[in-house]
Structures are given as structure tokens and as C-alpha cells.
Specification:
The complex is a heterodimer.
Chain A lengths: L5 H8 L3 E3 L6 H7 L6 E5 L2 H39 L1
Parallel strand pairs in A: 1-2
Chain B lengths: L1 E9 L7 E10 H17 L8 H6 L9 H18 L2 E8 H9 L12 H20 L6 E7 L5 H14 L2 H4 L2 E7 L12
Parallel strand pairs in B: 1-4, 4-5
Antiparallel strand pairs in B: 1-2, 2-3
Helix pairs in contact in B: 1-3, 5-6
Classes of the chains: A mainly alpha, B alpha/beta.
Chain lengths: ~80, ~200
């Protein structure tokens, strides 16, 4: 493979690369309006992966509790109806 | 304001240590100009059928026989078009080994679904990058459309994640999501660009 020329490397490197601010600060937002059409870097790091798994587990637990509450309410409502007879 | 994001992947082939999901963002009118300029550039280079970075680097396929001067000029012109006619771009990167160790192999309840590599990168783009974009383009009627290249491994996951986000993401995100379309490079000319 023919090596990339120094000029081409320089061209690629001249594209502005910006670390995405995951706190969505306005500074990051301002960069979009910059005239050189920057590229935002989004590395999917181990921390990000852990965070997503934790969120998945939390969401599952939330759903489990929701259905538990719903079931309990239905059972107690049915019980109350039975008692009224 | 209508914004379209064109997305393509790279690094899913065997031997590549990192996968990248790259994309470019532009307003509807900008893409029209981009397309016209890009077509002009291809025409100027003997009706170049497409741009493919790997083939360009290796000077193979349609780039066979190109010397350094020709390559440099082409790249310079291409970059000018991209800078002038797009708002910004993104590159989500994922290390294949880290994905296996810190995501796939992690102990979790069976019901917690894990994403494919493509899906994981897309999820991050959707959550983090699009939110940032919303803040930077404050518009009550902002709509963001997505175009993926059909046949990309794992792109089906992206569709699922997108549909779910439209249905159940917080309103600040769900309300701006428009459509997600898959298409061949031939159908979506703006796909034929370096990212």
C-alpha cells in the first residue's frame, strides 16, 4: 500500500476534532456554528458501556416494580369487590 | 428547520481493532448544494463513480494510477466542499475488545438487552450528539432525519433503537426525531462522501 502523503495527513489532521461535552454545555453547542464544520468525537468508552448497562438494569427494575404495584392493586380491588358481596 | 444526518460505518471487518460510526449533518438546502458540488467534483475527476477512503489510500479501484499531486488536490477540494456545505460531523468509536469485555461479557439480568456494536454507537449518537445538536440549533420546529447505508452489519438495531426513542424517549429528544431511512449509496448521492 502506498503511504499516505504528508500533505494528506495534514489535511486530515486539519479537520477540527472536538470532544463532545456529555453535559451538553453551551460551549459544545457553539462549536457547531464554527465555520469549519467540526467533527465531534464520541468514544464509546468502558465507562459509557457500564453506564448503559446500569441504566438497562434500573429500567428493568422500574418496570418490575410498576407491574408489581399494578398487580397488587388489581388483587386488592378484586378482594374488596368480593367482600362487598 | 429540517436537518438530515447521513451515517456510515467502518472497521467492522476482521482485523480492525476499532469500529467507527461516522456521520455528517447538514440542513436540507445545504445537502442540495453539497450534492451539486460533489457531483461536479466527481465529474472533474473523470466521472469518478464514488469515493472510498480505503481504496483512495491504497490507490486502487477508481484511484489507480493517481499520483500524489492529484490525490492531494482532490482531497483539498473534497474537504472544502464538506466544510462549506455541512454543519458538522461526528465519529463514534468503539474498541472491539472493550465491547466484549466491558459490555457483552458483563453479568446482567437476562432481560436486559444489549446492543450490537453498531447499535451501541448509534445509541450514543442519538442520545448525546443529537441532544447537543438540539441545543445548538434552537428551533421550535427542528426535525432531524437519518439516512443509513443499507446492509451495514447491525443497522437493523439502529432502526429498533430509533423507533423506541421516538416512542419513549424524553420529549426534548423524541420530538425532534423525524425518519430513519436506509438506502444504497446509489440512491443517496450525498452518501458518497468522505467522513
Amino acid at each position: 500500500m502506498i503511504a499516505f502523503s504528508a500533505f494528506q495527513e495534514e489535511q486530515i489532521q486539519s479537520i477540527p476534532l472536538i470532544d463532545l461535552d456529555r453535559n451538553y454545555s453551551i460551549q459544545g453547542a457553539k462549536e457547531v456554528a464554527a465555520p469549519r464544520s467540526p467533527i465531534f468525537k464520541l468514544p464509546v468508552t468502558p465507562d459509557v458501556m457500564r453506564e448503559l448497562i446500569q441504566k438497562g438494569i434500573a429500567h428493568l427494575e422500574e418496570r418490575r416494580q410498576f407491574w408489581h404495584r399494578e398487580r397488587t392493586q388489581i388483587i386488592s380491588a378484586a378482594g374488596a369487590e368480593e367482600e362487598s358481596y | 428547520m429540517i436537518v438530515t444526518v447521513y451515517i456510515d460505518e467502518s472497521g467492522t471487518h476482521a482485523g480492525s481493532p476499532v469500529m467507527t460510526l461516522g456521520g455528517r449533518v447538514a440542513r436540507l438546502g445545504q445537502w442540495v448544494h453539497f450534492d451539486r458540488k460533489w457531483r461536479g467534483l466527481r465529474k472533474r475527476y473523470d466521472d469518478l463513480p464514488y469515493f472510498h477512503a480505503r481504496k483512495f489510500k491504497a490507490r486502487s479501484g477508481p484511484f489507480q494510477g493517481w499520483d500524489d499531486v492529484k490525490c492531494n488536490r482532490f482531497l483539498d477540494r473534497a474537504q472544502r466542499i464538506i466544510s462549506k456545505h455541512t454543519l458538522c460531523g461526528f465519529a463514534a468509536t468503539l474498541d472491539h475488545d472493550e465491547y466484549k469485555t466491558f459490555y457483552r461479557a458483563v453479568e446482567r439480568p437476562k432481560k436486559v438487552k444489549v446492543d450490537s456494536k453498531y447499535g451501541l454507537c448509534f445509541r450514543l449518537v442519538l442520545v448525546d450528539f443529537i441532544r447537543m445538536l438540539c441545543r445548538s440549533l434552537p428551533d421550535d420546529k427542528l426535525t432531524i432525519h437519518f439516512v443509513l447505508e443499507s446492509g451495514d452489519p447491525g443497522s437493523g438495531d439502529a432502526k429498533e433503537i430509533f423507533d423506541l426513542a421516538k416512542k419513549s424517549a424524553p420529549p426534548d429528544l423524541a420530538d425532534v426525531l423525524g425518519t430513519l431511512t436506509s438506502g444504497d449509496k446509489a440512491d443517496f448521492r450525498a452518501c458518497r462522501r468522505p467522513t
